[in-house]
């Protein structure tokens, strides 16, 4: 694959995958319903372990840039089964994200049509909380975004940079104005994590907030296409810090403008409602336009690293050779990009069983948050094991590559494990409902369970050399795939 990306290109891909505007527009309302008026506190608290783990990602990428990123690093350093599971849950989690973001995109488009006084089409009333309508509209956007990704990363990165400039400009303008125009009294307690009402609220709030930061590592999945490996590390860190500042600004501004009940009740329409409280039309439509563009960019930024992760797994022979086929002209994993898009489309159609967009988002975000905590922790552990010698030879670098990632991993595992327990303990029967604890727990369990089954198939059926190579920091990073 071509080395066509620089620092700003990588930062654009990482930022688009993290999708701050979408997280602000949707995630803040959900999080406020859990932690109350402590959005700034929980966003800052979740940033710390993610930043520590990002240090491990950056160090691993500097010595071994690979499109498989955490899948290869964990498998090479810790255990190939854990490496495969890391790649699998990352892929499945991203596909689930793409499926529900498809619906979110359709919802934003319907909201935009409503603000343009288009409330029905061919006699059908448009409903921005209808999973069916939103999904069908969003599927067209997903397919178009994937076709651009097939065309090449340089085009996709340029498009995303333009979208980000518009999104961030709108966010800064509205949130900056909201800080001064809001009539809700400001309080420093908003930034105090010890004032969060309960341990379960803290755990679920942390998982939701970590989910908001999720995606910065997508720049490492295109590490083989970044001209300088150090640029990928810098891009990931830059995207993370910018996200944190935006989340703090938006969380504070939302709470200055909206009472808690209004913030929590508006959920998937949170950013549009926020804009309508601050401005009249047509200016009030700008935050919704920014949300729509962010959803589109995040769909594209999700399919790009996922296709490259599957390319790496196919190259190692743990998946079929179809995932390794490159476009003859653009040298992108075109077949894999289109296949993963098709799978996301099917899952999006299946999600229509959940009737409202708000319920769909809640179920998906909690499930993805738990598996993200798991594979972030595994990658952090790989960094700590691989660079443990730095504690003796370069203690300051050891803090960044060993101690920080380990502490971040422990924090996320504790939070994810506690949340999983609360889901199990909150119900006494299974029900296909977004607020049923056993259903919410079943989704991440299925993600992990299918990963173990797929790993067993790759090990004993495909006889992939990936499972036979030596483990350790001195292991040869180049693993030949078995003959097709």
Automatic annotation (TrEMBL):
It is a multi-pass membrane protein. The keyword Membrane applies. This is APC family permease. Gene3D superfamilies: Amino acid/polyamine transporter I. It comes from the Bacteria. Pfam families: AA_permease_2. It is found in: Cell membrane. PANTHER family: AMINO ACID TRANSPORTER-RELATED (PTHR42770), MEMBRANE PROTEIN (PTHR42770:SF7). The chain crosses the membrane at residues 35-60, 81-110, 130-150, 162-181, 201-223, 235-254, 284-311, 331-354, 360-378, 399-421, 441-460. Its main location: membrane. It comes from Kitasatospora aburaviensis. Keywords: Cell membrane, Membrane, Transmembrane, Transmembrane helix.
């Amino acid at each position: 694959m071509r080395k066509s990306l620089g620092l700003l290109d990588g930062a654009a891909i990482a930022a688009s995958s993290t999708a701050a505007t979408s997280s602000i527009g949707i995630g803040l309302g959900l999080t406020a319903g859990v932690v109350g008026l402590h959005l700034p506190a929980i966003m800052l608290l979740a940033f710390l372990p993610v930043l520590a783990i990002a240090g491990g990602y950056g160090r691993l990428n500097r010595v071994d840039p690979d499109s498989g990123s955490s899948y290869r690093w964990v498998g090479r350093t810790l255990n190939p089964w854990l490496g495969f599971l890391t790649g699998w849950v990352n892929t499945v989690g991203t596909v689930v994200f793409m499926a529900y973001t498809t619906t979110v995109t359709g919802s934003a488009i319907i909201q935009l049509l409503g603000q343009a006084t288009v409330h029905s089409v061919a006699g059908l009333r448009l409903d921005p909380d209808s999973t069916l309508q939103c999904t069908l509209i969003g599927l067209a956007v997903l397919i178009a975004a994937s076709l651009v990704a097939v065309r090449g990363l340089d085009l996709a990165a340029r498009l995303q940079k333009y979208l980000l400039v518009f999104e961030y400009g709108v966010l800064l303008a509205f949130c900056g104005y909201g800080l001064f125009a809001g009539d809700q009294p400001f309080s420093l307690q908003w930034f105090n994590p010890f004032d969060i009402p309960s341990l379960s609220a803290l755990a679920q709030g942390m998982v939701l907030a970590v989910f908001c930061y999720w995606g910065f590592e997508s720049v490492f999945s295109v590490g083989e296409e970044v001209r300088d490996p150090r640029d990928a590390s810098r891009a990931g860190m830059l995207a993370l810090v910018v996200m944190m500042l935006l989340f703090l600004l938006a969380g504070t501004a939302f709470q200055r403008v909206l009472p808690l009940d209004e913030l929590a009740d508006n959920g998937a329409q949170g950013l549009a409602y926020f804009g309508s409280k601050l401005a009249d039309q047509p200016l009030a439509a700008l935050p919704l336009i920014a949300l729509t563009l962010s959803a589109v960019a995040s769909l594209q930024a999700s399919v790009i690293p996922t296709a490259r992760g599957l390319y790496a797994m196919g190259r190692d022979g743990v998946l079929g050779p179809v995932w390794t086929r490159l476009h003859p002209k653009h040298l992108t994993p075109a077949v894999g990009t289109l296949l993963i898009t098709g799978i996301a489309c099917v899952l999006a159609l299946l999600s229509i069983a959940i009737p409202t967009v708000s319920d769909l988002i809640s179920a998906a975000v909690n499930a993805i948050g738990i598996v993200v905590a798991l594979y972030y922790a595994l990658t952090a552990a790989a960094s700590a094991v691989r660079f443990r010698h730095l504690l003796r030879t370069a203690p300051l670098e050891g803090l960044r590559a060993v101690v920080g990632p380990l502490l971040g991993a422990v924090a996320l595992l504790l939070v994810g494990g506690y949340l999983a327990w609360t889901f199990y303990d909150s119900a006494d029967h299974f029900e296909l409902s977004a607020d049923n604890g056993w259903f919410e727990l079943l989704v991440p369990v299925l993600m992990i369970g299918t990963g173990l089954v797929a790993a067993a198939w790759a090990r004993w059926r495909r006889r992939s050399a990936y499972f036979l190579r030596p483990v350790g920091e001195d292991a040869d990073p180049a693993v030949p795939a078995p003959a097709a």
